[in-house]
Specification:
The chain is an alpha+beta fold and about 500 residues long. The chain has helices at about 5-20, 65-80, 80-100, 120-125, 160-225, 230-265, 275-280, 295-300, 305-325, 365-435, 440-475, 495, and strands at about 50, 105-120, 140-155, 270-275, 290, 330-340, 350-360, 500. The strands form 3 sheets. The protein has a 4-stranded antiparallel beta sheet with strand order 2-3-6-7. Helix 5 (about 160-225) packs antiparallel against helix 9 (about 305-325) and helix 10 (about 365-435) runs antiparallel to helix 11 (about 440-475). The radius of gyration is 39 Å and the shape is elongated.
Length: about 500
């Protein structure tokens, strides 16, 4: 074979460099977001919100509830879903480091010693032997060798660069996913806490109602004993008492269920109920207008939007990776070797050898399969673009819906508060009129029923307002900024954190 002369090698290398003036595949450009998507929210004028102030990054502090803040901090550190997302982020970053290592040369260091024996008959006729006069039947020799090989792929067609771009996009998407999990867990903690407090409050209302209705039943019993009432009146009053009592077990069961959820959300067994949360008897409330900002701030803040955009960037880079497989690879090869029959001779000029030169290799691919992979990569990029645009619409929709529902819940809650006050006043007036003989027992019974229903509806409405507040905070996308890093260590014991074991 005729050796390739140095000018020919240089010409081939220059040609390859000329072909690879730019990386294969399209360069990524972030998609434009329509201006209408960044405008103020349509529901910005809803009651209970402030669109002039930016959304809060630690919204749970607006409740001024130390127990809630502590529970969310515990969830950030010990929740298993957050730890899982953090592990996925570490893996994505390690894959990015692996991709970046493609820019570094590959090296190989070797050292060897061999002793060789050659039989005299393997050399040839006696006259041709190197030491024929000795009459030896074999010849021994030693060889000491050390070598260093290096190869470096010239990223002419951008395979390595696109691989780094894709890995970087995946890592940034994993970071955004972790932030999104943090928001979701914080919202779950807040809602479970509010529901536990709300169930306790509703159970207390039911007990108070049962106590009031019990007083009415005792009154009717005394009237019956005095000959002024009927057994039917006593039975009807007892119906109200037992209806109120019947609500308590279900509400207490729901309270305990939410406390179990809080325990697992903070990385603890369900039996380790948080003592402070267990003592909560009133739904936490935000006493100020909720800051919401505008659509532009929302899209910049929401982690799911950021994750979708980064996935689009990664999938766009994968088009270049697939395209680069159509082109040859150019590798610079170099080696240095030392070899001598005696170890003392290693390092002398006579033991030194080297080689250096480019290697242009082109494994002709199955072009049909290669182009099919390119089409697959383009389709994946198109799908990611559609997902990104859909994520923007989802973020806007969820926020508008949350604003509409929250405003409606506030209006309903205000109306129910007025109704409860009126029902309380009416019941008090009716009892006074009944005691004076101006109203009959049926009037008193109806008034007591109305008061019980109004109080229970208001308690349920308070819980619903708290849930919708949290849903709004979740839709606004804040809560991941400044979150502490998750810990792989187990959470502190229940004794040191004021927890208590569940007793049923």
């Amino acid at each position: 074979m005729t050796p390739v002369r140095t000018p020919t090698v240089a010409l081939l290398l220059a040609s390859a460099l000329g072909l690879g003036a730019c990386a294969a595949g399209p360069d990524y450009r972030p998609p434009e977001i329509p201006k209408v998507a960044t405008a103020p929210f349509r529901e910005a004028g809803a009651i209970g919100v402030d669109d002039a102030a930016p959304a809060s990054s630690d919204w749970w502090k607006l409740y001024a509830d130390r127990t809630l803040s502590r529970l969310i901090e515990d969830a950030f550190r010990y929740n298993t879903d957050i730890r899982l997302a953090a592990a996925n982020l570490r893996r994505a970053r390690a894959q990015l480091s692996e991709a970046r290592a493609g820019r570094l040369p590959t090296t190989d260091l070797s050292a060897s010693y061999s002793r060789q024996r050659i039989g005299a008959d393997q050399i040839g006729p006696a006259s041709g032997r190197p030491d024929d006069a000795s009459g030896a039947d074999h010849y021994d020799s030693d060889l000491y060798e050390a070598g260093f090989d290096a190869s470096y792929e010239l990223d002419i067609f951008g395979r390595v660069s696109r691989s780094i771009e894709a890995a970087r996009g995946d890592a940034q998407a994993a970071q955004a996913t972790l932030d999104g999990v943090r928001i979701s867990i914080a919202a779950q903690v807040a809602q479970s806490y509010a529901d536990a407090c709300g169930a306790a409050m509703q159970a207390d209302v039911a007990r108070e109602t049962a106590a009031i209705e019990g007083e009415t039943r005792d009154l009717t019993q005394r009237l019956l004993d005095a000959g002024r009432g009927t057994q039917r009146d006593v039975d009807q009053a007892n119906v109200l008492v037992e209806q109120a009592n019947a609500q308590v077990p279900g509400l207490e069961g729901e309270r305990r269920a939410q406390l179990y959820a809080l325990a697992t959300l903070t990385g603890r067994p369900p039996a380790e109920i948080d003592a402070a949360a267990s003592r909560c008897r009133a739904v936490p409330k935000v006493q100020t207008l909720i800051p919401i900002g505008d659509g532009a701030a929302l899209l910049a803040r929401r982690p799911d939007v950021r994750a979708a955009e980064r996935k689009l960037a990664a999938d766009t880079a994968r088009i270049g990776i697939a395209t680069a497989s159509l082109f040859p690879s150019v590798t610079l090869l170099g080696s240095v070797s030392l070899g001598a029959p005696k170890i003392d001779d290693i390092g002398k000029s006579s033991s030194f050898g080297y080689s250096l030169g480019p290697l242009i290799s082109w494994t002709f691919p199955n072009f049909a399969a290669a182009r099919a992979k390119i089409r697959q990569a383009r389709a994946g990029s198109d799908a990611s673009l559609a997902a990104f645009q859909g994520t923007i619409l989802t973020a806007l929709r969820e926020t508008e819906q949350a604003l509409a529902r929250y405003a409606a819940a506030l209006e309903r809650n205000a109306a129910l508060a007025r109704a409860a006050a009126s029902a309380q006043h009416a019941a008090e007036q009716t009892r006074q009129r009944f005691d004076s003989g101006r109203d009959n027992f049926l009037d008193l019974l109806v008034a007591e029923q109305n008061r019980a229903a109004a109080r229970q509806a208001l308690a349920q409405s308070d819980t619903n307002v708290a849930d919708l507040q949290v849903s709004l905070f979740k839709a606004l996308g804040g809560g991941w900024e400044g979150a502490p890093a998750p810990l792989d260590t187990p959470p502190p014991s229940s004794e040191s954190q004021g927890h208590m074991a569940a007793t049923g």
